[in-house]
């Protein structure tokens, strides 16, 4: 959980969510392990998987650079 706290702080500082929070979901139903989703949230519905949308490789690179600059 130490790593989750560090990454959550990094996401907060990079994306400045309106709520000031980063939501988390521990998930492992479809795989033989679990993983943690960390999502900067503006409102409670932002954590819903129904709101997920695919990202282009360019968008993922942009997000990576934004987070890396803050670390």
Report strand order across the widest sheet: 1-2
Distance between the termini: 18 Å
Structural class estimated from helices and strands? alpha+beta
SSE string: HEEH
Question: Could you tell me the radius of gyration in angstroms?
Answer: 13 Å
Question: Helical percent range?
Answer: 25-40%
Largest sheet: 2 strands, antiparallel
What fraction of residues sit in β-strands? 15-25%
Helix count? 2
Give the tally of β-strands: 2
Which ranges are low-confidence, i.e. pLDDT below 50, for 5 or more consecutive residues? Answer: none
| Overall geometric form | globular
* Overall mean pLDDT: 89
Characterization of this structure:
The protein has 2 helices and 2 strands. With 71 residues, the protein is an alpha+beta fold. Strands 1-2 form a two-stranded antiparallel sheet. The longest helix has 14 residues, at 2-15. The protein is globular. The protein starts with a helix and ends with a helix.
């Amino acid at each position: 959980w130490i790593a989750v706290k560090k990454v959550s702080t990094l996401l907060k500082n990079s994306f400045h969510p309106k709520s000031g929070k980063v939501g988390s979901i521990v998930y492992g139903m479809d795989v033989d392990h679990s993983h943690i989703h960390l999502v900067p949230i503006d409102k409670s519905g932002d954590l819903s998987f129904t709101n997920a949308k695919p990202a282009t490789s360019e968008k993922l690179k942009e997000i990576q650079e934004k987070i890396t600059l803050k670390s």
